[in-house]
Amino acid sequence: MPIEKPLNERQSKILKAIEEHGTVTIDKLESTFNVTPQTLRRDLNMLAEYELIQRFHGGASANNSTENMSYKDRQIRFLSEKEAIARELAANIPDHSSLFINIGTTTESIAKALMNHTGLLVVTNNLNVASLLSKKEDFRVIVTSGEVRARDGGIVGEATMSFVQQFRMDFGIIGISAIDTDGALLDYDYREVRVAQAIIENSRNVYLAADHSKFGRRAMVKLGNITQANTLFTDRLPEPKMVELLESHDVTLHICQ
What we know:
By secondary structure, the chain is an alpha/beta fold. A seven-stranded parallel sheet has the order 6-5-4-9-12-14-15, sandwiched between helices. Strands 1-3-2 form a three-stranded antiparallel sheet. Strands 10-11-13 form a three-stranded antiparallel sheet, covered by helices on one side. It is built from ten helices and 15 strands. Helix 5 (79-91) packs across helix 6 (105-113), helix 6 packs parallel to helix 7 and helix 8 packs parallel to helix 9.
């Protein structure tokens, strides 16, 4: 079911707790949040209706780590947060820059925010990004070779990775599905991860864009580590240990409101 309205702060925290711990019970949540069990049940039922969690009697569990939610649901999930991230990131891209943009709904928001720029050269494995940016006559947009995924317009495969490796760009703009507590960047498709790794390796500056829901979330394929980014753009201050990790590796942190 599509998300009809934004999650409130408590619901976002409940979702994060479930994704971090795998399962939670009403009793456990009650000891954390100062609300009634009835309110918590309504929160869990709503999250389950939005297909963000799996509901069971007395609690809930995270969706499995092997498959992402649908593309349409991801497009509208935390949309205002993604747009804030997109505006801030775009403001840090100079005109006449060269950049990679990878697959993801957050990177699609970033592409929209780049439309007022001048003279960009973009290499992308995201057909939705290419379709949008190609409307600007002063942009040069190069689409990678490879296999097109019908569900989201992403291009993946060995040919895609080899294509990316032919370039050296000013910026690599990376979206990600999940960030583990140790900073590991995680995703669901091995082929997509290989392309993202190639983008990181061939970018002078790596800009990672991730809303707060990505922290503590689970996915099965490791892309790399958050310390490989030069700059992280997110909408809320991460946990203290994550901030310490970023600071110790000189990763610039932008909190986008």
